[in-house]
Each structure stands twice: as structure tokens, then as C-alpha cells.
Design a protein that fits this description.
The chain has 306 residues and is an all-alpha fold. The chain is 71% helix and 0% strand. It is built from 13 helices and no strands. Helix 3 packs parallel to helix 8 and helix 10 packs antiparallel against helix 13. It is globular, with a radius of gyration of 24 Å.
Length: 306
């Protein structure tokens, strides 16, 4: 009887969360999936003056979308490639820089608390504030970066008007914003590793690199795996930075799937196709998460050796 009553109490406390999740997550998700099978647009979506007149078109949106990949001038293919490059490069630098800073802050150095606080500032500042600040620094004539380059005798860089430099620019902003989260997450993982393992390794003559490779990395793997998955999801869906800094330009050279879906919905007013993009984004992230977690679990049986 006590066990049953405890279960009901647990469900009672979970009910408000489940209701909120159902209204804010699951209902829009199901609605978006349904819309992806329709031809909904600004003319047939309905209003208070006219009833909805959109129709179900089955898999036509998906067929048209994936068939466009094989066209010579496929925008969708270019957007997919740019999204993968954007996600991989950002998460790579998030992890590498975040791990390096976490290793430094895990050492017993003077003023460690102040350094942690300062390094968390980019993550604490709203992303739109960071985007506007960096956009000002990228200004080709009056921006801080080009002024410094000219003082040093270099030519100014067209940060936001050149395809290559525009992608570099938004990646720099997103790395600035995302590194603190990775740093503080990995720092928590480092502090959970028992110091006795390092002491035993030093007694046995293990080098610092051997300790890092055979103790730190294996024991940090669960935390790193979760942080990487979250980093991929957030970076894959990072709409704010790209839209506010480059708006996907120049000539869609920084467009990613989430900004392209927004453009399809609120500039082309093709809600059915925009919902299809949303389902594709969700499918990509779901497949990546499942495969990545399985890969991590398959390799989690390795021991700690030095």
C-alpha cells in the first residue's frame, strides 16, 4: 500500500510538468508533423473571414524536398552541407576550448573563482546582445577588428560581405557564446574524478599525458557525451546568431536548416514545406542522438589503465 501511494504522489508532482510539456512541446510537435503533409500557405490557412481550405498532399512535400538534392543548383543540398559544417566546427571548438579551460580551472590557482565568473559572462549575456555587439565589431569601416588590422598594417577584412568570412564570423560568435557551457560542464566532470587515481598513477610513474589519456578522458566520457549531444542540438538549431549577424547571407552562404525553414514559413509563406523542414531537422537530431548514445555505450566498457 505504501509503495502504491508513493507512486501516486510521484505522478501527482509530475502532472504539472507533463501538462506544460504536452501544451508547449508535444502538441506543437504533432501539429507540425501533420502540417508537413499539407499544402498550407498564406492563402489557404484560413482566417476569421474564410475557413481553411488547405488539403492533405501525403508525402509530396518530402518527395519534392529530397528530390531537389539531386538538382545541379540545389539550395537544399547547399543548406544541408552548411548546416553540417556549422555544427561540426562549432561543437569541435566548444569541446576543445572548453576542455582546455576546464583543465586550467581545475588546478589550484589563485583567483580561480574570479576566472570562472568572468568566463561565464558570454553564456550569461543574452545571445542577441552578443550578436549585436559582434556585428558592430565586424563593421568593415568602423568595426574594432578592421581598425586593429589597419593599425597593424593589414588590409581590412570583409567580415560580413564575403561568403567565407561571413561563415567564419558567425562561427566565432557562436564559439564565444557556447564555450562557457561546455567549460563549466566538463569542469564539473573533472571535479568528480577521485584524486586518489592520479596519486596512484604518479606513484607508478605515469606521465601527465598518460594520466590525461588513460584516467581523465575515460572517466570524463559520460559527462562529455551528454554535453556534446546538447551542444550539437543547440548549435544545429542556433537561429539567433546567424539571423541577427548575417541573416543567412551573403547569397545564402551562411544559411542553415533552421533559418531556411524560417524563411520558407515567414517570407515565402509556405507553411507546409516549412513544417517539412522542421520534421527533417527533428529527424536528423533524433538519429544523431540515438546513434551517438549507442556508440558511447558500446565503448563504455573500457577500463582505466596507465
Amino acid at each position: 500500500m505504501t509503495i502504491c501511494s508513493n507512486k501516486w504522489i510521484a505522478w501527482l508532482f509530475l502532472t504539472p510538468v507533463l501538462v506544460v510539456m504536452a501544451l508547449l512541446v508535444f502538441y506543437p510537435l504533432v501539429q507540425g508533423i501533420i502540417y508537413s503533409f499539407t499544402d498550407m500557405n498564406q492563402y489557404n490557412m484560413g482566417s476569421k473571414f474564410a475557413p481553411p481550405s488547405w488539403t492533405f498532399v501525403g508525402l509530396d512535400n518530402y518527395v519534392d524536398l529530397f528530390a531537389s538534392i539531386f538538382k545541379p543548383d540545389s539550395v537544399f543540398r547547399d543548406v544541408i552541407v552548411q548546416t553540417l559544417v556549422w555544427t561540426f566546427v562549432n561543437v569541435f571548438f566548444h569541446f576543445v576550448i572548453g576542455l582546455g579551460l576546464a583543465l586550467l580551472l581545475n588546478r589550484n590557482i589563485k583567483g580561480r573563482g574570479i576566472y570562472r565568473m568572468l568566463l561565464m559572462v558570454p553564456w550569461a549575456v543574452p545571445s542577441f546582445v552578443s550578436a549585436f555587439s559582434w556585428t558592430w565589431m565586424y563593421n568593415q569601416t568602423y568595426g574594432l577588428f578592421n581598425i586593429v588590422l589597419q593599425k597593424l598594417g593589414f588590409a581590412p577584412i570583409p567580415w560580413l560581405s564575403d561568403s567565407f568570412w561571413a561563415m567564419v564570423s558567425v562561427i566565432m560568435v557562436n564559439v564565444w557564446v557556447g564555450v562557457p557551457f561546455m567549460m563549466i560542464t566538463l569542469l564539473g566532470g573533472l571535479q568528480s574524478i577521485p584524486p586518489s587515481l592520479y596519486e596512484a598513477a604518479r606513484v607508478d610513474g605515469a606521465s601527465p599525458w598518460s594520466q590525461f589519456w588513460n584516467i581523465t578522458l575515460p572517466l570524463l566520457r559520460p559527462v562529455a557525451a551528454t554535453a556534446t549531444v546538447l551542444g550539437v542540438i543547440w548549435t544545429f538549431n542556433m537561429f539567433t546568431i546567424i539571423f541577427l549577424v548575417t541573416r543567412g547571407g551573403p547569397v545564402r552562404s551562411t544559411e542553415i536548416l533552421v533559418t531556411y525553414a524560417y524563411r520558407e514559413a515567414f517570407m515565402n509563406w509556405n507553411f507546409g514545406m516549412a513544417a517539412t523542414y522542421g520534421v527533417v531537422i527533428f529527424s536528423f537530431l533524433l538519429a544523431f542522438t540515438v546513434l551517438y548514445r549507442r556508440l558511447i555505450k558500446a565503448n563504455s566498457g573500457e577500463g582505466v589503465y596507465y
